[in-house]
Amino acid sequence: MDDQAALAGIVRAFGAESGTIHWVGGDGLLHLAACVGHFPPPVMDAIRVIPVGKGLAGLAAERRTCVTVCNLQTDDSGQARPAARATGMEGAITAPCLAHDGRVVGVIGVANTQARTFTDAEQASLLEHGRSLAARRSGGHA
């Protein structure tokens, strides 16, 4: 299964409307590998390459845990980048894709058009999806 198909299944499983997968490149930045949903051109420009520590995906990589926002449109925590509002999404969650040795090799994220608080079980589930994606990407040896 390729990244796009895997992401589409995860977005459906979460009842979400959009999602992304980013992989860490040789430059240490997060590079967009798959996306599901509508992303306006300015958003696509902003999410093609993301520095670790910036935005929801970058923070998930830096913190090595899930980052959630109940409503991107009203969030003032500073976690989301300004371009995130242009997606029209509200509830969002990102999780690191962790290799078996603990390295962050990517980030997966999903978002909803409605405000949403993600449960501990949902966060654990997205972390597990991230581990599975990392293992699949390295042929089972992430």
Task: Give a structural overview.
The chain has a 6-stranded antiparallel sheet, sandwiched between helices. Helix content is 32%, strand content 24%. Strand 1 and strand 2 form a beta hairpin. With 142 residues, the protein is α+β, with helices and mostly antiparallel strands. The protein is built from 4 helices and 6 strands, in the order H-E-E-H-E-H-E-E-E-H. The mean pLDDT is 90. The radius of gyration is 13 Å and the shape is globular. The two termini are 16 Å apart. The protein has one domain: Beta-Lactamase.
Question: What is the average per-residue confidence, as pLDDT, rounded to a whole number?
Answer: 90
CATH fold-level label: Beta-Lactamase
Helix content: 25-40%
Order of helices and strands: HEEHEHEEEH
Cα-to-Cα separation, first versus last residue: 16 Å
**Class based on secondary structure composition and strand pairing:** alpha+beta
Q: In order across it, which strands form the biggest sheet?
A: 3-2-1-6-5-4
Which geometry do the CA atoms define? globular
Q: Report the strand count.
A: 6
